[in-house]
């Protein structure tokens, strides 16, 4: 396997909407968010609660039109990491989760780690993910919102904090196991930390840590942080947030996670890293994130309509029955519109959660207010 091998060498049925892009699309392209697809394209195939079979993803990709040309622009797309995992599965002839266990977890002694969400959920000592309704308190996440096993490569790994410490030590020790065995060659260790796709430097990193550049590498974000290289990645699923950052020259790595959907969680990691990279800097990363989070909560409660009057329905342009039917989308699949309690009701076929009454808000225009 080479980073610049065509994806079709391993997944012959892989297809984008443009034949040229299909033939040129490489393994590196799967992992560096430069496909030309819109931000988050295809997420509804597996979020909030769907479980796509692997074969349905190439079938969907070929129907999603690009938003920009191929490779010049960054747009984060989780969906392409699923065929990324499938490449390794096709080569080794076994599931991606098994490969991760034998190639990474076992050599590093990360015995708690699971690459299948179903296994993590069944473990005796598992943190429950939580969500906060607008204006409400944190509640345990409904099990249907946990990622499906076949979505694993897109961000469904679970580990104890001690095992994540082993993962950090692996990178601080030059990609070697505790016994000194190299799992990656020095050349490959450099390759995964080499920028591929230019991104816009975060405003707070530019203002408070002097960041001049921002690049997306092979599964890692690269920035300068008070003059030091910072290698990091944040992540969020429904009900949980994580942030991992390394200052290689300072020999420090920080991992922070929460079983709550808390924006700005990485500020705690940045506060710790700043103490090592710039002891004299006085910016309070946690306080500024807290202020942003309070504003976010206020906006969320207002925009959701929680506690307020529902929007006044607009006048319909045609009888309710004219809208009823089964609608088919080339990549998403079926969605059904029916009449319930004298109003239109939408049932999104792939999801149990995305079922909602439709409120008319304009000529032939409706708002779906999800009950959860």
Tell me what you see in this structure.
With 372 residues, the chain is an alpha+beta fold. Helices cover 28% and strands 19% of the residues. The protein is built from 11 helices and 13 strands. The strands form 3 sheets. Strands 3-4-5-6-7-8 form a 6-stranded antiparallel β-sheet, with helices on both faces. A hairpin with a 2-residue loop joins strand 6 and strand 7 (240-247). Helix 10 (266-277) runs antiparallel to helix 11 (285-304). The longest helix has 20 residues, at 285-304. It is globular. 27% of the residues are buried. The model has no long low-confidence stretch (mean pLDDT 91).
Describe the structure concisely for a colleague:
It contains eleven helices and 13 strands. The protein is α+β, with helices and mostly antiparallel strands and 372 residues long. A hairpin with a 2-residue loop joins strand 5 and strand 6 (228-237).
């Amino acid at each position: 396997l080479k980073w610049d091998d065509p994806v079709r060498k391993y997944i012959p049925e892989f297809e984008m909407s443009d034949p040229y892009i299909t033939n040129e699309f490489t393994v590196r392209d799967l992992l560096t968010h430069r496909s030309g697809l819109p931000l988050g394209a295809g997420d509804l195939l597996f979020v909030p609660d769907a479980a796509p079979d692997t074969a349905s993803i190439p079938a969907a990709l070929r129907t999603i039109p690009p938003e920009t040309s191929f490779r010049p622009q960054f747009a984060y797309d989780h969906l392409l990491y699923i065929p990324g995992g499938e490449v390794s599965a096709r080569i080794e002839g076994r599931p991606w989760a098994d490969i991760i266990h034998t190639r990474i977890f076992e050599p590093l002694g990360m015995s708690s780690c699971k690459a299948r969400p179903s296994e993590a959920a069944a473990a005796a000592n598992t943190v429950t993910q939580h969500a906060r309704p607008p204006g409400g308190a944190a509640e345990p996440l409904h099990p249907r919102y946990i990622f499906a096993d076949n979505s694993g490569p897109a961000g469904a790994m679970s580990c104890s904090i001690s095992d994540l410490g082993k993962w950090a030590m692996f990178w601080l020790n030059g990609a070697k196991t505790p016994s000194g065995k190299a799992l990656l060659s020095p050349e490959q260790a450099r390759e995964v930390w080499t920028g591929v796709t230019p991104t816009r430097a975060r405003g707070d990193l530019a203002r408070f840590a002097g960041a001049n550049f921002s690049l997306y590498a092979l599964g890692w974000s690269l920035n300068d942080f008070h003059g030091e290289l910072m290698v990091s990645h944040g992540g969020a699923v429904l009900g949980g947030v994580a942030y991992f950052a390394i200052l290689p020259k300072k020999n420090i790595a920080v991992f922070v996670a929460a079983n709550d959907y808390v924006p700005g969680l990485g500020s705690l990691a940045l506060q710790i890293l700043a103490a090592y990279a710039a002891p004299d800097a006085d910016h309070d990363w946690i306080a500024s994130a807290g202020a942003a989070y309070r504003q976010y909560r206020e906006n969320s409660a207002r925009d959701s309509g929680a506690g307020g009057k529902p929007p006044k329905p607009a006048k319909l342009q045609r009888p309710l029955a004219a809208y009823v039917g089964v609608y088919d989308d080339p990549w998403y699949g079926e969605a059904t519109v029916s009449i319930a309690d004298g109003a239109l009701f939408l049932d999104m076929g792939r999801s149990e959660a995305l079922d909602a009454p439709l409120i008319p808000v304009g000529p032939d225009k409706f708002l779906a207010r999800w009950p959860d």
